[in-house]
Amino acid sequence: MRRCAIVGMGMITGPQPGRTARWLEAEATRRAIEDAGLKPSQIHGAIQLRRTGGGGERAFLTDAFPRVLGLPVNFYFTVGRGGCLAGLGVAAAMSFLDLGIADYVVLTGAVDDYSRSRETKAKGALGMVHLEKEGYWGKPFGDLRAPSHHSFFAARHMHEFGTTSEQLGMISVQERAWAQLNPEARFYGRPITLKDHQESPYVVWPYHLLDICLVSDGAVSVVMTTEERAKDHPHPPVWVLGVGFGEAMAELWWEKQNYTRLAVQTAKEQAFAQAGIELQDIDAAQLYDCFTGEVLFQLEDYGWCKKGEGGPFVAEGHIGPGGDIPVNTSGGLLSAYHFGDLTGLSEAVIQLREQAGPRQVPDCEVVLVTGHGGEVLSPGMCSIHSTLLLGRN
Amino acid sequence: MAYTKPRPNIDGDIQPFWEGLKNHQFLLYRCQQCGAWYWPAAFCRFHDNQPFAANMKWEPASGRGRIFTFNVHHWAFDPAFKEDVPYVYALIELDEGPMFGTNIVGTPPDQVRIGQRVEIVFEDYPEEGFTLPKARILEEAPS
């Protein structure tokens, strides 16, 4: 298969009241095409990255950003499974590029969650209740939102391994420290201490408010092409080194260890084998961080520490600015902006292009981006995991 | 008072389970060949290519198990739960094997622990046409 690379990126951050996700997709895509030094007439394929699946129904099929932009695409479709968008989208785009169906493919995702959550709050609800589809198991029992069906995983990890809320809080503190180096981050200029974390209210025990990701408006778009053209653009290409996937779906009722880990194993093996690299070759990790527990699980699942030892590991530092494994260098979903795993994808491109300013990871050559999502048929939860390895060479 | 909470999603795959609850029976989906229990409905993983789960049947189960993990909701994401917070949502490892998620009722949240034995209790809502399966803690030593 031909090597593929990201050669353009467009991004929109900050509240966008009154704008639809579709409009944000169109504008981010326009910026990505411009960033790649291309014209819209050169884009022959478009993939929408959408947080479909999960408990929410965020797809819209009434209109599409390529129509808004007037892109002469030969194909357009949606991929995504909860917060697992980037790996699925990149793998799909690569097959179209390798087949020669398009020279350039855009992948674009947008959210209007922040503005929508303001609307539902005005109606007396906490969170985006009106976006939820009817139907998954737990709703009549008050298993209503993402903190409901993620928090009991953290509780189980605490039970099995003695992990503490303070240790999880150290993940929040370190990600917030990264956000202080990112002027685009929602919580730029608002650092937190472990005391702040501990004193923030419980939302769903064992999660405090500061264990939980934020919601955002905004969009990310990237332009991909193959090695024949990858170097003909204003910015150095960001190469796809490997992509892999794992699923816990079939094991959810049987393999009771899946309550303290994510489906990392096969995803990691596939992606690292394609890239021909080892864990120590990773210069920065953009780990899906809907909640602090997911970061802890992944640090263990990828092997930065042993299963069960994630608590002491994060309490020692390691993942914040100056740490030996920089994690979520934008501030992540916890402190910067929540575009699903497109937050991690965008940060990987920024780091590999050495455009990260004060948060730039020195000599950053390989970045890991993970995705996490899926159905929330309690007791199951977000069963897919994706591993995407991006590099400068 | 009007029922304002989300109603259960009762589709064809799980309708017999909800019918059982109305009769205060807790049913699980069971393989007639090997006896393995499932919840929710599934094809038995131990036999390949059985068409339309022909070897499966809803059967009465013990309705007992152990708390595997749980959380405590302090926020009512939906205003209909405002009177309920703080409430416990638990994953129960049923004695037959499958995991089952529901509320723990009758015990203050700060006294709920992983490992406690529980049994299913039935909350009837006849005017709504369904019964909710909840769980209460049994007076046995946790393991």
Question: Which structural traits does this protein have?
Answer:
heterodimer, A: 393 residues, alpha/beta, Peroxisomal Thiolase, Chain A, domain 1, nine-stranded mixed β-sheet, two-stranded antiparallel sheet, 12 helices, 11 strands, 18% strand, globular, B: 143 residues, mainly beta, OB fold (Dihydrolipoamide Acetyltransferase, E2P), 2 domains, five-stranded antiparallel β-sheet, three-stranded antiparallel β-sheet, 1 helix
Structural topology:
The complex is a heterodimer of chains A (393) and B (143).
Chain A: E1 4-12, H1 21-35, E2 45-49, H2 65-69, E3 75-79, H3 86-98, E4 105-112, H4 113-122, H5 146-161, H6 165-179, H7 194-199, E5 202-205, E6 207-208, E7 217-226, E8 238-247, H8 264-275, E9 284-286, H9 292-302, H10 310-315, H11 332-335, H12 342-352, E10 366-373, E11 384-391
Parallel strand pairs in A: 2-3, 2-4, 9-10
Antiparallel strand pairs in A: 1-7, 1-8, 4-7, 5-6, 8-11, 10-11
Helix pairs in contact in A: 6-9
Chain B: H1 15-22, E1 27-31, E2 37-38, E3 56-60, E4 64-73, E5 87-94, E6 99-104, E7 117-125, E8 130-137
Antiparallel strand pairs in B: 1-2, 1-3, 4-5, 4-7, 5-6, 7-8
**Distance between the ends of chain B:** 41 Å
What is the chain-wise order of helices and strands of chain A?
A: EHEHEHEHHHHEEEEHEHHHHEE
- First and last CA, distance of chain A: 17 Å
Percent of residues in β-strands of chain B: 35-45%
Q: Low-confidence segments of chain B, ≥5 residues, pLDDT <50?
A: none
CATH class of one domain in chain A: Alpha Beta
Reported CATH architecture of one domain in chain A: 3-Layer(aba) Sandwich
Report the top-level CATH class of the largest domain in chain B. Mainly Beta
Q: What is the global morphology of chain A?
A: globular
Rounded to an integer, what's the Rg of chain B over CA atoms?
A: 16 Å
Strand order of the largest sheet of chain B: 6-5-4-7-8
How much of the sequence of chain A is in beta strands?
Answer: 15-25%
The fourth-level CATH homologous superfamily of one domain in chain A is Thiolase/Chalcone synthase
